[in-house]
From TrEMBL, chain A:
SMART domains: DEXDc, HA2, HELICc. It comes from the Eukaryota. Residues 380-548 form the Helicase C-terminal domain. Transmembrane segments: none annotated. This is Ubiquitin carboxyl-terminal hydrolase 28. It comes from Platysternon megacephalum. InterPro entries: DEAD-box_helicase_OB_fold, DEAD/DEAH_box_helicase_dom, DHX34_Znf-C2H2, Helicase-assoc_dom, Helicase_ATP-bd, Helicase_C-like, P-loop_NTPase.
From TrEMBL, chain B:
This is Cysteine-rich DPF motif domain-containing protein 1. Coiled coil: none annotated. Residues 13-105 form the Cysteine-rich DPF motif domain. The lineage of its organism: Eukaryota, Metazoa, Chordata, Craniata, Vertebrata. It comes from Platysternon megacephalum. Residues 108-117 have a biased composition (Basic residues). Belongs to the CDPF1 family. It holds the Pfam family C6_DPF. Residues 105-124 are annotated as: Disordered.
Length: 1139, 124
């Protein structure tokens, strides 16, 4: 009921002269603030049951008004019918003797409020003169009577809730099966409970087990949100009988304590427990809920548990599933007994309404969904059901674009009829927008929720009576060949169709409209494709390896994944260095296995820690692991785009995320609570930044645990510690207050007026719950994180050197996920830029990518700057070619690169390629058999190549020492001086300016890339090309294998037949030896002549040779602005380079 | 976190008429932290699970002053009229109670007959 109505009535009442007000003088006014204040002072003191100003006291006064009204009406209605007093029967039980003979309602109240002190106060004796006149005794007793009635009423109310709760629990279908279930669990190690929606298995089974005396129960859930809500619900239903014994544990939150007897946790988390303690000694009973959903983790968990059971005969396992494919689960566990429980759904009428052929064909563009069939259902509902009969409509569509199409049409219809409120629901909406689906429509209006399959299981909306099912779903499928995720539209399975239908029958009989024919339904697959058969398995294989589960190819999965997926995963992990040649975990692999993130992101973390870039790398890794905080621009919103611009980094999306996170932390530390507005203005979903902050902290702790990061330094002096302590106490208090007033009030939705714009954006998410002015997320954030530390990390801007190194680290992490721009991109429109990866061609930039909006950032602009320099014959020559390192490849209607970072092509390829193949003079290089680099100057090419070899060796060595030394053995970690030297030399390496061209090889060229095995007897009369490295003829490619990744002179070419024996005069820059060398000899000499890198002073390692000779003199080059020690010949050569 | 210390359940209260079961943390007339409120009968009390304030209590039931059966405070099991009486005892001694109470019981009886489904489940 509208509260204003209530208020008005209350006002009217207080104005009316009524018998309950004082007759004498008519001065007494119950509703005056002064009167109430005085009474509250007497009765609602700090130490009293009800406190002044509390919610309780407000409720009391509301009750008081109702009571007065009731008493007035009663006094007017029935002229005091005095009942004859009951006759005391001498034969009655002696216990009845003392019953009051004259009835008074207050005898029916079993509590009392002590009054001695209060009476005294009322007469104003013990108070100061400011108190004014006391309360007349008559009023006081009136008030006291009301207070007693209120307390009694509150008792009755709560008791009624208790009774109702127990009635409802007893009425759940599963209640009938309680004993059968407990018997089955007692007699068997594994039991399957199969029951459909509404049977109560998720909430009741854990309680039955607890009540039967089991403890240490874990119940796994596929979704985090379910863990929290189930723990709350079970705690509530059991009346907190178990107190802290019911808890939950999800990625960043845990209410677990040593007293916890049952914990709800995600499948992934239980798997992490197994990883730490393979026998799960902490648990007595495991309940795996929703196993029929067949999530990757769920399937894997079952496999792990099946292996574990023989080793833990005392462990009980309860599988809970919908009544889908029960035989599969029971069979997997050797014919486990099944307790089958009927669901509780109301009858649902199914209406098949396939889209007519001609309409489907005529709709023109196949990409655009035709909303007409959907509108027809809205119309049909309007025709058939009177608006007074409540019941909302839930529409299932395959994706966001489809939702947009139907939303637009339905909103136009809603504006016209004023009978619908149309709301979208999908996971890329802001949380506030998602929450709207739980709001109430005004009377006579229905909600129409247009949703993805998120509403099939994850989100449950009450009050849905109609379901409209498109029969389609978009699912990520994985192409192991291209390592590409593809978002494709499929028909749903019969199981999904039934699940969707069931959503109409939760609260009453319902109707399900299906936009397909019954024959289509019959042709659907019975169940959805299990996740394990359609996703990348890298993380799974890594985890299996770290759990010591042996060869993943022979693991007894519930249903095995495709062999090719497993092979790809193993190969990928080998490529990433997580597995060695024998497929066992490398040191970095075992670390990566403990990071709950993508392998590439884990690699970034480890690499970043080495160079003291842990701060920014942690942030980037965390931000890349959560959903993008950037909301899709709701139409073109120029304000939002402008506000975002300062956050955008010209280097790429990961750095834009870094800027955004840092800026957000700054805003948070400067003005508490201001961050919400700040985010809204920039179209950012703050929730995801909170998630990133949580994840960042988790990464930080993991790196610390592994000794890759120094320990935290708390505030040094005690006053800072104290103030931090005080602040925390305050925050705790705020959070508790919030929790007490929690429970989001449902709002009433507004009918969309004349404007057809989507649901009103302004104010969404603001002031949803909690005390006004307090942003509870902010409070939680500050409780969880050391904001000062975060701010310090976020506040320091990166120097250009740090930035360059950071990019290098990110790029090495992402390698080999590289894309090269198409050679004709400069002639294309901005939006049509095309890129190619090794295995996939014609990829475009995701619209959210910075380079999609500013492709000029990827152009090699220098040719334009110096027009005179183009040499005509060699097109595409430049020194600034760029590649894109990307986080993922996603295919929807087109393949997209997601989260791109640009990287200088030549240094990146020289430093990271798994395979580098060269021509004889090393001017032609092929990286990973798909990108060809032609360097103009063979001198420069050789120098770069040999530097790259040394840098790679040094980097690898340091990284290995870091990983070995991470077990806290002092002195085993990397030498800081060596790290500094490497940093310096990497930076110098990045600055080398060399003219080269970059080109993707054609398929034909790839086929004829190598000269193939040769009959040359041995290496050309030379000792090993590099110290220690033996040069052996490569048996596949031809040429010579120099290192694991470098193969010399194996490229076919028609020009350099003799080049490997052509000598030219050359002066060694280190020892000034001057004599004719073949390229090979030159490289060999240079590397053996070069001083050990760690012996060189860090600053000048690259330029100034240790042994300067008399021939050399200082030379400053104006073109590249650097200083060298050169002989005259070298100066000439150097100058030539710049011409 | 700190609240569970003070409200350690002492045992389960079970109504001998309807079977309602709930854990109680106090038995007596002066539940802890209730300040000026006292109970007029020895009662089984728990912390009110439906309000966040941890000082609020909920009376579950007490002993019938005639037959000593443990009964809950639900209106279908007992009533309070200066003392606790279970409904079977009230019905046996109906004439001893004032008219208001008898009328009340009559009203309730006819009411529960017209809506049998609502109350029947756990309470018979």
């Amino acid at each position: 009921m509208p509260s204003s109505e209530k208020e008005r009535r209350a006002q009217r009442r207080s104005r009316d002269p009524s018998p309950s007000r004082g007759h004498r003088g008519g001065r007494w006014d119950w509703s005056s603030a002064e009167t109430r204040g005085r009474l509250e002072e007497l009765y609602f003191r700090e130490q009293d049951y009800i406190r002044a100003g509390s919610e309780d006291s407000r409720q009391f006064w509301a009750f008081f008004e109702r009571l007065q009204l009731f008493q007035t009406l009663k006094a007017e209605g029935e002229p005091a019918l005095r009942a004859p007093p009951a006759r005391a029967d001498p034969s009655a039980a002696p216990g009845l003797a003392g019953l009051p003979q004259e009835y008074d309602p207050r005898y029916r109240i079993n509590l009392s409020v002590l009054s001695g002190e209060v009476e005294g106060l009322a007469r104003g004796r013990s108070r100061g003169p400011r108190r004014g006149p006391g309360v007349p005794a008559e009023r006081l007793s009136q008030f006291r009577a009301a207070l007693l009635h209120y307390l009694d009423f509150a008792q009755k109310q709560s008791f009624a809730k208790l009774a109702k709760l127990q009635r409802e629990r007893a009425a759940l279908p599963i209640a009938q099966y309680r004993d059968r279930l407990l018997r089955a669990v007692a007699q068997n190690q594994v039991v399957v409970v199969a029951g459909d929606t509404g049977c109560g298995k998720s909430t009741q089974v854990p309680q039955y087990l607890l009540a039967a005396g089991y403890s240490h129960v874990a119940c796994t859930q596929p979704r985090r949100i379910a863990c929290i809500s189930l723990a709350k619900r079970v705690g509530f239903e059991s009346l907190h009988r178990y107190g802290a014994e019911v808890g939950y544990q999800i990625r960043f939150e845990s209410t677990r304590s040593p007293a916890t007897k049952i914990v709800f946790l995600t499948e992934g988390l239980l798997l992490r427990h197994v990883q730490r303690e393979p026998a799960l000694p902490g648990y007595q009973v495991l309940i795996a809920d929703e196993v029929h959903e067949r999530h990757l983790h769920s399937d894997f968990l079952l496999g792990v548990l099946r292996r574990l059971l023989p080793a833990r005969p005392d462990l009980k396992l309860v599988l809970m599933s919908a009544t889908i494919n029960i035989r599969l689960f029971a069979g997997y566990f050797g014919g486990a007994p099944v307790v089958q429980v009927p669901g509780r759904l109301f009858p649902i009428t199914v209406v098949y309404q396939p889209i007519p052929q001609e309409e489907a064909a005529a709709s023109g563009k196949p990409e655009r969904l035709d909303p007409r069939p959907y509108l027809r259902v809205l119309q049909a509902i309007d025709h058939k059901y009177p608006p007074e009969e409540r019941g909302d409509l839930l529409v299932f569509l395959s994706g966001v674009a489809e939702i947009g199409a139907v939303l637009e049409a339905a909103q136009a219809y809603a504006t016209h009829t004023q009978r619908w409120v149309v709301l979208p629901l999908h996971s890329t909406l802001s949380i506030a927008e998602q929450d709207k689906v739980f709001d109430m429509p005004p009377p006579g209006v229905r909600k129409c929720i247009v949703s993805t399959n998120i509403a099939e299981t994850s989100v449950t909306i009450d009050g849905v009576r109609f379901v409209l099912d498109s029969g389609k779903v978009k699912e990520l499928s994985y192409d192991p060949q291209a390592k590409l995720q593809r978002l494709q539209e499929f028909w749903i399975s019969r199981a999904s169709a039934e699940q969707r239908k069931g959503r109409a029958g939760r609260t009453g009989p319902g109707v399900c409209y299906r936009l397909y024919a019954e024959s289509d339904y019959d042709a659907f697959a019975p169940y959805p494709v299990p996740e394990i058969q359609r996703v990348a398995l890298d993380a799974l294989v890594l985890q299996m390896k770290s759990m010591g589960l042996g060869d993943p190819r022979t693991f007894p999965f519930l249903e095995p994944p495709p062999q090719s997926s497993l092979e790809t995963a193993v190969r990928y992990l080998r490529e990433q260095g997580a597995l060695d040649g024998a497929e066992s975990l490398t040191p970095i692999g075992s670390l990566l296995a403990q990071l709950p993130v993508d392998v590439v992101i884990g690699k970034m973390l480890v690499l970043g820690a080495l160079f003291g870039l842990a701060g920014p790398v942690l942030t980037v890794a965390a931000a890349l692991s959560v959903q993008s905080p950037f909301l899709r621009p709701t139409r073109t919103n120029p304000d939002c785009a402008t506000a975002r611009r300062p956050l955008e980094s010209p280097h790429g999306d990961p750095l834009t995320l870094l800027n955004t996170f840092n800026e957000w932390v700054q805003v948070k530390s400067e003005r508490a609570g201001g961050s919400r507005k700040w985010c809204r203005r920039r179209g950012l979903e703050e929730h995801r930044l909170y998630e990133a902050a949580n994840l960042r902290r988790q990464f930080q702790e993991l790196l610390r645990d592994h000794g890759l990061l120094g320990a935290v330094q708390g505030p040094r002096d005690s006053s800072a510690r104290q103030s931090r302590h005080r602040e925390r106490r305050e925050l705790h208090h705020l959070r508790r207050r919030h929790e007490e007033t929690e429970g989001r009030k449902r709002k009433v939705l507004k009918l969309q007026g004349g404007e057809t714009g989507s649901s009103s954006d302004e104010g969404a998410g603001a002031g949803r719950a909690g005390p006004p002015g307090v942003d509870i997320q902010d409070v939680k954030f500050k409780l969880r994180h050391n904001v000062d530390e975060l701010q310090a990390a976020a506040g320091t801007a990166l120097s250009s050197h740090q930035l360059a190194l950071l990019k290098l680290v990110l790029c090495r992490g992402l390698y080999p996920q590289l894309a090269a721009p198409d050679q004709y991109n400069s002639c294309r429109k901005d939006s049509d830029q095309i890129f190619h990866t090794k295995n996939k061609q014609g990829i475009v930039l995701h619209p959210t990518c910075i380079f999609a909006g500013s492709p000029e950032l990827l152009q090699t602009t220098e040719e334009k700057a110096e027009p005179g320099r183009s040499r005509g014959s060699q097109e595409g020559l430049g020194s600034r070619h760029q590649l894109l390192a990307f986080v993922s490849l996603l295919e929807t209607n087109k393949p997209y690169l997601v989260n791109c970072l640009r990287a200088p092509a030549l240094p990146a390829l020289l430093l990271f390629s798994r395979a580098l193949d060269t021509s004889a003079d090393c001017t032609r290089l092929v990286a990973d058999s798909w990108l060809e680099l032609c360097v103009l100057d063979s001198e420069a090419a050789l120098r770069l190549l040999s530097t790259a070899l040394q840098l790679r060796a040094a980097w690898e060595g340091l990284l290995n020492r870091q990983l070995e030394g991470r077990r806290g053995e002092p002195g085993r970690g990397p030498d800081l001086r060596e790290v500094a030297t490497l940093r310096q030399r990497l930076l110098e390496f990045l600055q080398h300016k060399v003219q080269y061209s970059l080109r993707r090889l054609t398929a034909l060229e790839k086929q004829n890339l190598y000269v193939g095995p040769q009959t040359v007897a041995a290496a050309p009369g030379l000792p090993g090309l590099f110290q220690g490295a033996e040069m052996t003829p490569d048996e596949e490619k031809g040429g010579y294998r120099v290192t694991e990744f470098l193969t010399y002179n194996c490229l076919t070419s028609d020009t350099d037949l003799y080049s490997d024996c052509l000598r030219s005069f050359w002066t060694c820059p280190h020892c000034a030896l001057y004599m004719p060398f073949t390229p090979l000899e030159r490289m060999n000499h240079e590397s053996s002549c070069r001083p050990q890198p760690q012996e060189a002073p860090p600053e000048e390692a690259a330029e100034s040779p240790a042994k300067a000779t008399a021939l050399q003199r200082p030379y400053h080059c104006d073109a590249c602005e650097r200083d060298f020690m050169f002989t005259s010949t070298e100066i000439l050569r150097h100058r030539k380079q710049h011409q | 976190m700190d609240s569970h210390k003070e409200a350690q359940p002492k045992g389960d209260f079970e109504c001998q008429l309807c079977g309602l079961t709930a854990p109680y943390s106090y038995y007596g007339q002066k539940p802890p932290n209730t300040h000026s409120v006292v109970l007029l009968e020895e009662s089984y009390v728990m912390k009110d699970p439906f309000v966040p304030d941890k000082d609020k209590f909920l009376i579950l039931g007490s002993q019938c002053s005639l037959c000593n059966r443990r009964v809950c405070v639900g209106t279908e099991c007992s009533l309070f009229y200066s003392k606790r009486f279970c409904l079977p005892c009230v019905n046996e001694n109906l004439q001893e109670f004032p008219l208001e109470i008898r009328q009340d019981l009559d009203k309730r009886k006819s009411h529960s007959k017209s809506h049998p489904s609502k109350k029947a489940d756990a309470r018979t």
